[in-house]
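no rush on this but wanted to send it before i forget. theres a chain ive been looking at and ive put its sequence and its fold in token form underneath. please have a look and point out which stretches look like helix strand or loop to you. thanks a lot i owe you, the record is right below:
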Amino acid sequence: MSVNLRGRSLLKLLDYTPSEIRYLLDLSKNFKDLKRTNTPHKYLKGKNIALLFEKTSTRTRCSFEVAGYDLGMGVTYLEPGSSQMGKKESIKDTARVLGRMYDGIEYRGFSQDLVEELSKYAKVPVWNGLTDEFHPTQMLADLLTIEENFGYLKGINFTYMGDARNNLGNSLMVACAKMGLNFTSCAPKELWPNKELVEECQKIAKDSNCTITLTEDVKEGTKNADVIYTDIWVSMGEPEEMWAPRINLLKPYQVNDEVMNNASKNAIFMHCLPSFHNRETTIGEKIYEKFGISEMEVTDSVFESKRSKVFDEAENRMHTIKAVIYATLC
């Protein structure tokens, strides 16, 4: 059966079937080949998209902008504070205004309810560039990166270490369940994902013939893992007073050489970026001065190793986002 995503929003991968996700991944590969061979593909010339950001980003903004330009589109970036959404104008009204001017809208911010409301009233495809609950465009890039390294997805042993109840932890569990990867959440119990979402993913995983595992044990959680994935310990927008308790809680879950050596022989390391793996950032230096830690969620030796696929992963944001835009607008 052919897949038709025209007019669809991408708000979370729970809304998409495995065959629809597979279609987007295959389409991403095609666009990656076109980009690598400098083959023009301005298939959406004359269309326009708006990028609505409440949270700043390097990879999400650049990926959407380059994807839009490569497809021949006009792209408008609305930075934090430059729109009246939620201040002088309701979300509903903003959606109805932008939906009459643009063919598609990307939103990156806080509330999942907000992006759902945008989609409801805009009457054009809305793409979730990140909310507090889900990060679906990152998931497509992650799945593509894994498949490029192993040649397949089903049966891969995937371990996520860190705050497993954030948007990355939620989304990775969903993505793995949908596409047949064995997902392990390796985190302190206080940071395990929402029980209802775990149960929903376990049902999906049963149909996909894979497993969902929650553990606090680092050795157990990383043993024979094909993919070790982590994220920053303190998320964007969280106050500085969260740093000390979060760092103390997650110190045992740092991805280091010992963790990678406990994984499978050909295991890869992944991270959505940015990463605090050294003191070469303002925040990295501030953390060092305050807590005496020069490396946080991952050590520099792992981040800079041949096993690290973080920059392939970052590049793949552009190709997978291009696929999403094309599939939902074409």
User: Anything to note?
Assistant: The radius of gyration is 19 Å. The chain has a mean pLDDT of 95. Residues 310-329 form the longest helix (20 residues).
